[in-house]
C-alpha cells in the first residue's frame, strides 16, 4: 500500500513543526530539488537541503500553520503561515508551497514568500 501525496506532505509539515530534522529528511527523495516558485534552484539533494532546515530549526518560535491544502494527483499545494524569528524580531510570513511527490517522497518543492508581518514586541 502506497502513502498518499497528502500524507507525505503532512508528515513533512509535522516533522517541520517538531523540528525533527531526520523525520523531515525522510520525506524528501535523496535527489530532491527545492526552488523559488518560477525561479532559481535553492537546494538539490539531502546534502544541500538538510543545512537549510537545520539553520531554520534554530529559531525558537518556528512553526508552520496550515491555512489551506489542495491536492491534484501527485501535486500538493499548501498555503502556510510560518511563525519565524527574523533579525528584526518575531513575525510571520505567508508561504505558498508546491510539492511533487513521487514514489512516496517529495521529489520537487517550490516556495513563494508572500506577506511578512512583524509582531509587536
How is the secondary structure organized here?
Layout: H1 5-18, H2 21-26, E1 28-36, E2 41-44, H3 46-57, E3 63-72, E4 75-86, E5 89-102, E6 105-118
Parallel strand pairs: 1-6
Antiparallel strand pairs: 1-2, 3-4, 4-5, 5-6
Describe the structure.
The protein has 121 residues and is an alpha+beta fold. It has a single domain, classed as Nuclear Transport Factor 2, Chain: A. Helix content is 26%, strand content 52%. The protein has a 6-stranded mixed beta sheet. Strand 5 and strand 6 form a beta hairpin. The model has no long low-confidence stretch (mean pLDDT 96).
End-to-end Cα distance, whole Å, is 49 Å
Q: What is the radius of gyration computed over CA atoms, rounded to a whole number of angstroms?
A: 14 Å
Helix/strand/pairing category: alpha+beta
The CATH class label is: Alpha Beta
Main-sheet strand order equals 2-1-6-5-4-3
Low-confidence stretches: none
* SSE arrangement, N to C: HHEEHEEEE
**Total tally of structural domains:** 1
- Could you tell me the mean pLDDT? 96
Number of distinct beta strands: 6
- Tally of individual helices: 3
Taking the sheet with the most strands, its summary is:
6 strands, mixed
Task: Please tell me the CATH architecture by its name.
Answer: Roll
CATH topology: Nuclear Transport Factor 2, Chain: A
The rough form would be described as: globular
Strand content: over 45%
Helix content: 25-40%
Amino acid at each position: 500500500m502506497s502513502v498518499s501525496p497528502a500524507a507525505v506532505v503532512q508528515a513533512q509539515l509535522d516533522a517541520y513543526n517538531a523540528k525533527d530534522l531526520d523525520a523531515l529528511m525522510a520525506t524528501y527523495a535523496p535527489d530532491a530539488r527545492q526552488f523559488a516558485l518560477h525561479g532559481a534552484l535553492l537546494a538539490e539533494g539531502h546534502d544541500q537541503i538538510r543545512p537549510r532546515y537545520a539553520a531554520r530549526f534554530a529559531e525558537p518560535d518556528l512553526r508552520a500553520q496550515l491555512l489551506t491544502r489542495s491536492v491534484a494527483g501527485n501535486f500538493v499545494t499548501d498555503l502556510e503561515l510560518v511563525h519565524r524569528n527574523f533579525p528584526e524580531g518575531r513575525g510571520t510570513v505567508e508561504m505558498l508551497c508546491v510539492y511533487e511527490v513521487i514514489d512516496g517522497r517529495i521529489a520537487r518543492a517550490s516556495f513563494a514568500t508572500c506577506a511578512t508581518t512583524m509582531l509587536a514586541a
